[in-house]
Design brief:
By secondary structure, this protein is an alpha+beta fold. The protein is 18% helix and 37% strand. The chain is built from 5 helices and 19 strands.
Length: 258
C-alpha cells in the first residue's frame, strides 16, 4: 500500500519549502497538429512563451507544456513524455542522488539536463528552466491561474515511483493503493498510476474552478467538449492518428485542506 501523506516515511524524507530546489512540471507532447493544439491550449488559458523551429512552450497558471513537431503518422505523433524543469541542475542532481534516486547531468540535443533513472526502469529528464524577466522562476502572468498541467507516470511499482518523486522534491498531495499525486514547488501536478509497464501516461490538466467556464471558452471557438462526472472531456486534436485517445481529460482540482 502507498504510504499516506503525513506518515512517518513521508515526514522523514519530505523537504521543506525553503530547501526545495526549483521544480516545475513540464511534459513534452509530440504532435503533427501544432496549429490545432495552439488553438486548444489558448482556449484553455495557456500562454505561448517559446516558438523555436518546431519546439513550442506554453505556460499554464501552474506548470508548463512543451509541444514538439512530429511527422504525421510517426510513432511519436500524439504521444506525451513525462518531464520536469529544474533551476540549478547540478544542485538538483546532487540532492536527488543524496535522497536515493539516480540522477546524472547529461548533454541532450536541447542542452544540459538531468537524467533521472528510477528503479522500475522509467527514465525522465529534468531540463533547464528559464527565468522570467524579473529573475524569478515565475510563469506568464497572463495564463489562467486556475489551470494546472499534469504529467503521469504509469508503473507496476507505485510505491517505488512515490519514493522517487519524493526524492526529486515533489510534494505529496494524496494517494491510494494504486495511485498517488504530487505538486511541484513551481507549478504543476505529477501523477503516479498503476500500469503493466513503466511508461509515460496521457496528457491531462486540472482546473481549480468551474469546468463550465472552460467548456464555454472551448465551445466559443468551436472545439468539441463536454462535462461528464466532474471531468471535462475535450476532443483530442491527435485522435485521427488512431493511436491517441479520443479526448483529453480536465478534472476539477481537489478542495484544499482546511
Amino acid at each position: 500500500m502507498v504510504e499516506a501523506p503525513g506518515g512517518i516515511g513521508w515526514e522523514r524524507t519530505r523537504r521543506t519549502a525553503q530547501e526545495d530546489p526549483m521544480l516545475r512540471v513540464r511534459p513534452i507532447h509530440f504532435t503533427s497538429r501544432t496549429e490545432q493544439w495552439e488553438q486548444l491550449l489558448g482556449a484553455l488559458g495557456l500562454v505561448k512563451t517559446v516558438d523555436d523551429a518546431g519546439w513550442l512552450e506554453f505556460d499554464a497558471g501552474s506548470g508548463r507544456l512543451a509541444l514538439r513537431q512530429a511527422e504525421h503518422g510517426s510513432a511519436e505523433d500524439g504521444t506525451t513524455v513525462f518531464g520536469v524543469e529544474a533551476g540549478i541542475l547540478d544542485e538538483f542532481a546532487r540532492r536527488t542522488n543524496e535522497d536515493g534516486t539516480s540522477a546524472e547531468v547529461v548533454e541532450t540535443p536541447r542542452g544540459t539536463a538531468v537524467r533521472v533513472s528510477a528503479r522500475d526502469g522509467f527514465i525522465f529528464l529534468a531540463e533547464q528552466a528559464r527565468r522570467a524577466a524579473d529573475g524569478s522562476w515565475a510563469g506568464s502572468p497572463d495564463a489562467d491561474p486556475a489551470l494546472a498541467v499534469a504529467a503521469t507516470w504509469l508503473t507496476p511499482d507505485v510505491d517505488g515511483a512515490v519514493r522517487e518523486l519524493r526524492n526529486i522534491g515533489a510534494r505529496p498531495r494524496s494517494s491510494t493503493d494504486t495511485t498517488a499525486d504530487f505538486t511541484a514547488k513551481n507549478g504543476g501536478i505529477l501523477c503516479v498510476a498503476h500500469g503493466t509497464a513503466p511508461e509515460s501516461g496521457d496528457l491531462s490538466f486540472e482546473y481549480d474552478g468551474g469546468l463550465e467556464t472552460l467548456l464555454g471558452r472551448l465551445t466559443a471557438v468551436h472545439i468539441e467538449a463536454r462535462v461528464d462526472d466532474d471531468v471535462l472531456h475535450v476532443a483530442n486534436p491527435d485522435a485521427a492518428t488512431g493511436a491517441a485517445p479520443a479526448s483529453i481529460g480536465i478534472t476539477r482540482a481537489p478542495a484544499a485542506n482546511p
